[in-house]
TrEMBL record:
Lineage, uppermost ranks: Bacteria, Bacillati, Actinomycetota, Actinomycetes, Glycomycetales
Source superkingdom: Bacteria
Record organism: Salininema proteolyticum
Protein name (Swiss-Prot/TrEMBL): Phage head-tail adapter protein
Length: 77
């Protein structure tokens, strides 16, 4: 399934393991999609990302209804 949306940087945090890699988090704003829920995987910019937050739904006219989720970059993907 292809998902089109708007990505915006949210935050970075350090892993708590030797090497202290950075983990990036982005917010994805898109139309509601089946399967876009916590634990789902997305491929963006050639990397795998995990959906970290349940979809926050914003209702309204069809032109403005959307959901937002936080995605986390998978390390070593």
């Amino acid at each position: 399934m292809d998902i089109r949306g708007q990505f915006s940087f949210d935050r970075s945090s350090r892993m708590e393991v030797p090497g202290q890699s950075l983990i990036n988090f982005y917010t994805l704003r898109t139309e509601p999609h089946e399967g876009l829920e916590v634990g789902a995987r997305l491929k963006w910019r050639g990397r795998l990302w995990d959906v970290e937050s349940p979809p926050a739904r914003y209702s309204g006219p069809r032109a403005t209804a959307h959901v937002t989720v936080t995605i986390r970059e998978r390390v070593n993907s």
